[in-house]
Amino acid sequence: MKTLKIILSILLISSLGGCKKYDDYQSDPNRTTEGDPGLLLTNIQVSVSGMVTLSAAMSSRQMVNTDGSDNNQYYGWQRAGFGNYNMLRQVLKMEEEAKLIDNTNYLALGKFFRAWLFLSLTNTFGDVPYSKALQGELDAFTPAYDRQEDIYLAILNDLKEANNMISADNGIVNGDVIYGGDLEKWKKAINSLSLRTLISLSRKEGNTKIGVINRFQEIVGSPAQYPIFTSNADSFALPYYEIDGNEYPYFNSNSIKTAYYFEESFVNMLKGLEDPRLFTFADREFNGKDLPEDDFNAYGGLGGSDLLSDNTGRLSNGEGSPIDSRYYDDPENEPAIGLGYAEIEFTLAEAAARGWIGNDPEDHYKKGIVASMLFYDFNQATIDAYLQKNQVQYLPQQGVEMIITQKYISFFMNSGWELFYNQRRTGFPEFATDGGGILNGGQIPKRWMYPESEIIYNNESLQAAISQQFPEGDNVNGEMWLLKTE
What we know:
The chain has helices spanning 2-17, 37-49, 54-59, 71-74, 84-100, 104-125, 148-165, 183-199, 212-220, 254-258, 264-272, 277-281, 308-316, 326-329, 341-353, 361-375, 380-387, 399-410, 418-426, 452-457, 459-469; strands at residues 63-65, 236-238, 260-262, 336-339.
């Protein structure tokens, strides 16, 4: 009888356990169901802030490739990719995890990175999917394209909202490899990105929908509410370390050591300004090896628009300065600037020169130069001497050109394609296209064509966007909304 009772008890317990639903067994009680948004933040930061690229340096007449006819140098490019959408999915996941732990600061950073990535996309192509993008989980695989004007407006609104969301009461930010969770520096980065976005709309002063000048004035006029960069320590810049996988991107690169040389118009610009940054950017050309390192005559360049054979011929004759060895010998070298303090000072200078704000453009112009030279560790005496040179003195009648020229110099091997975008909207400095190697009918392209994947998977939306923007069809010379004056 006792044995029978035991058996019945076991059967009863088993029957009760069998009442549990199948889904109840699908969750591992020993495994966390929430992710740390900080882990996603680290990857996003590293991906978007590593803005070191020879492609932009070649397209912007700073460097020349002697190993082949590079399409960036000779303006023969065609299509670009939509890779930023992959990173935007990571941003989306970071936001989802932030909501689970009720950390609003990560949501603010999500808006910052959305603005950053979409700004890059629209600068590259023109109209792109925005409001209907990133909805694959809702089976929305063929998103419509938003107009560039609407994208810019949304970006600016998101950045303003992100600034207002940041607060010490809204959670700690982990995984931050740039600012270490310093929320005040994040606010500065958010508002400084707003200034970059607004100055890129310099041809849209008359656009009442966006109100470019009013927005710019609002930020500059309210530093307590909208802080911006005030020193190099504020820059959104990724440091490198002598750790495998974390070194400077061109560390141990044989190609940058042997196949890339300075473009002569850039060298001549620096020579004409007697700019000592040349000595930290470049090494002496072979013909100048017997001269002191601080002798401008020891440096020279090759023709960015010249035939490859002409450049290799000049190289064999001892002409052409290679890049300084620190770019390939030093694993740490210098941080990769994504958005720098010097850029913001030059942006303020340009806005003042255009009459957007009442600040002194010369003051910001000089602060931009100082910031750039401090980044390269020049001492104050050298900086002061440079600022006193006649050719560096600010001339109001040439104000915008001088500001953009100095901004262009400060962008060497950092800030991605900003130097090209600045030249595209202002025309400064002039890029040579008169050599025999130039493709694209001797023109500097204004954009990139849409990726082939869109033709295959989202052709209807793509064709509608092309027709709306470029009646002549998708091409690299099409003038996007951003470049049309109003």
